[in-house]
Design brief:
Number of strands: 6
Number of helices: 2
Strand order of the largest sheet: 2-1-6
Order of helices and strands: HHEEEEEE
Number of domains: 2
Shape: elongated
Structural class: alpha+beta
Largest sheet: 3 strands, antiparallel
CATH topology of the largest domain: SH3 type barrels
């Protein structure tokens, strides 16, 4: 039993500093809690079409689309295109 605990503690220390594990936990936190983010939609020529902020969950969909609730208007937004999500 002591050997099992020691092995588990060693594995915990090894993986605690692993970047892949940190990204995994951060992704799970985003799924469960949501994230504060600025979302910018760009045209294909590089000009900005629109910009939004959200405190909630951002759902990524197939085809470059996302769905989120806009902080200012409190409306559900569903946008597609060239999108940049910046964590604030």
């Amino acid at each position: 039993m002591k050997k099992l605990i020691v092995i588990l503690m060693i594995l915990l220390f090894i993986f605690a500093g692993c970047e892949r594990v940190k990204r995994g936990w951060k992704g799970k936190k985003r799924e469960w809690i949501g994230e504060r983010a600025k979302i910018t939609l760009y045209a294909y020529d590089g000009s900005v079409i629109g910009s939004w902020t959200t405190n909630g969950h951002i759902e990524r969909k197939v085809g470059g689309c996302i769905e989120f609730i806009d902080e200012k208007t409190n409306k559900l937004m569903d946008i597609c295109g060239v999108i940049i999500c910046e964590e604030l």
